[in-house]
Write the structure tokens for this entry.
Amino acid sequence: MNRHTVFGRTIKTALAIRLAAVLAAGLLALTVLAPLALSGRTAAPSGSATSSASPRTSGSSGPVESTASVAPTLPADAGIPAFPNIAVDAAATAGAIQPGDVAVIEDANGGKLLFRFRDVSQVADAPSIQPSAPGDVFLEITVDLKALSASTFAADVLKVFGGEELGPDAAWPTPHLTVPDTFQPGQIVSGKLGFEVPPRGEVSILFPAVPGAGLRLELRAAPTGATPSPVPPNGWPVTLDGNGPMTVGPDGTVYYGDLVLNSSGHLVSAHHFALPGVSTGSPAAFGADGTIYVEGMTPDQSKTVIGAFGPDGTLRAGWPVSVDGFVNLVALPSGGIYAYPYSNIDSGVRLYGSDGTLRGSWPNAFGNSAVLGTDNSLYTLAVDPNGSRGHVAVMRADGGGASGTATDWQDIRVAPDGTVYAWTWDLAAGSDTKVVTTRIAAIGTDGNPKTGWPVSIKGSASTPAFGPDGTVYLTLGPSGVTSSVLALDPSGHTKAGWPVKLPAGYTALSDGGAWHWPDIAQAPTLGADGTLYVAAETVDGKALVAAFDANGHVEAGWPYRPPSSFTRFGGAVGGYTNETPPLFTPSGSGGLLYLVLKDRIIALSGDGKVAPGWPKELTGVTAWAATPDGGLVVEVGWYDAGYNPHTTITRWTAAGDIAH
């Protein structure tokens, strides 16, 4: 549950939920002190608040609009205690109120409402609802509202009180409270609010969010002392101070700030990577020989210091090196790295050998993204700082290079066979999102399209996914339209039996990558056996995973319909991919497909059934990564009662067991 919004939702205007520590002064106070049993709490949360450190803005994918039905008008004799007679011109209530008292609040348009809290009780943890932080409890409150005069709420207001657990598709034990767009004079609405409350914390309600209006509700558990200390890194799950970022190496080692955790969740070392002139260094690339390339910026942000460390944390001879500006790193299988900047105002692309010596330099080269070809050449997409498209430049390991003539590519990727692909989306005139044509090309060593490429596709197509035989797969269709999947052979021709359509009404998830365009679908996911998976949803949020074989036939046992919607954002998983999709198939998993949903992680077998040992019920996931044994590492961020950030990291095997 997100500590910024407490109820777990982003709320845009008239209803805002915040911790008392960030409340504006002058709110009314209703204090409830109840002796609540807190025995049996674990120090590490199994469902958690979202960390604000990740690039997903507190883990939220954006404002969520309620689709719950509007609560009916209730007669006064429907089990609701009668409201007192209060004049319509009564002033907004000032001062503290006690449980059962009635407050007068005023909406942004001058409408008057009566607001009453009553019947506060603790709610037992449901199997799918676990506390976000040590010692937290769930409280439930009955809320009654009555309109003294007509009141209208802004159209973009989230009208469902309560957390994600209180949503229409969730497992909270009792109903939630839904607020209609408008109240008519005399209309009454009653229902439940659910809160997760830290032992020393409090929950505050601004209703509505206008100056001088609102209620402050303090809900406190029985005194339990200080928030428990984080669990020491002595086996999974591990709870750590701070909010990341987490990086997972190709051998499954977890790097978190200055800490290094091995596959069993034990501390390997602290302050592992020391670089001169840098306060903190972070792993940025991993060599096939076990070298860990670490980089950090100098305090004035003018230089990047790069070090090469052995698996034991020892700095290798010849390192560190220093380059101007900020650079990204790409490791070579034979040892050494390419360091490339985002723009041509920095030091250019440089190639360093495994001993730290400069092997090549391209002073004016740069790249917004880069991939490594099979010949150890670096392919970069160089986009003009004032534009959104660029050309493909090639830097060879022997110090030579080439530059393509086409200047309108938007991204590049390398296939498992080493072929580099570039693509672009052409937009309709006057639109920032509507794609009219997608163009994709296999790129040669000169930076230009190979013979038979580019291929133009009408409408929007996803970024490519690649089969083991070199097939290029693309998801087609904008948001709101039934999606299909196209397969191209390595020469650019459409393969027989393709494209294939998803079930009617299902649209592939929109791309969670760098462009964040709603008109661009997410790329398919390829299993180790060549099975193609596509995550999709209907306009009303029903999720689905489709599976096709290499010939475009639906796999037996599929599609699978998840019980809740997908979580979508880039995972902080160095060593794997910059943007981890909500479904992935790690090698070593025995063919399992992992789904990251908003309230759980599920592992599916090849027959479309939930695998033994799964799912894992948890919320607030901020990052995830596959491990070499086919399991996964999951990061969950949360805040304690003092609003201090923490992170809990858990590693599971493919069988669903905690790794040891």
